[in-house]
Amino acid sequence: MRTSNETGAGVTAGPVAGAGNAPVRFDTKIAVLLRDDLEPWQRLNVTSFLVSGLGTVSPEVIGEPYEDADGVAYLPMFRQPVLVFEATKEMLTTAHGRALSRALPRAVFTSDLFGTGNDRDNRAAVRAVGTDQLDLVGMAVHGPRNAVDKVVKGARMHP
């Protein structure tokens, strides 16, 4: 796991480990925006699917593998927090447009995906609908902090 003084892409240098408890501040942000009318199981499912793609296009968001005191290895995870927001259907559509206009890496989940059962059908369901007609229920975005803040502006943190 990286210490707070490492300055890999997206990390602002912090104090040397053990030199204080100042938080690490990231230059980038990962945000998930969920439609506020989803059932609890849908929120979890959508969030899981959405964040799964970010590390493939932005590998710098993935930290180092974990290992416990007995030497058992665990998979690496995001090296920075994932902020989860909720918004109305209209606000989600607006946020999607903002993400597109800023060319930020993004993942989308549409209502049609609740009716499919595999990756191939998921992609076909999204491909069948024009950008402005997507019935978005969730979106993940990664990028510079200020750009992501502008994308999710008006949304509230998920309770």
Q: In terms of topology, how is this protein built?
A:
Layout lengths: L10 E2 L12 E2 L1 E8 L4 H13 L1 H4 L8 E2 L5 E2 L7 E6 L1 H13 L4 E5 L8 H9 L8 E9 H7 L4 E2 L2
Parallel strand pairs: 3-6
Antiparallel strand pairs: 1-2, 3-8, 4-5, 6-9, 7-8
Helix pairs in contact: 3-5
Shape: globular
Strand content: 15-25%
Strand/helix succession:
EEEHHEEEHEHEHE
Helix and strand content put the structural class at alpha+beta
Level of helix content?
Answer: 25-40%
Give the termini distance in whole angstroms: 29 Å
Averaged pLDDT, please? 88
SS element count, helices: 5
Can you walk me through this structure?
The chain has 159 residues and is of the alpha+beta class. The chain contains 5 helices and 9 strands; from the N terminus they run E-E-E-H-H-E-E-E-H-E-H-E-H-E. The chain has helices at 40-52, 54-57, 89-101, 119-127, 145-151, and strands spanning 11-12, 25-26, 28-35, 66-67, 73-74, 82-87, 106-110, 136-144, 156-157. Strand 4 and strand 5 (73-74) form a beta hairpin. Helix 3 packs antiparallel against helix 5 (145-151). The relative contact order is 0.22.
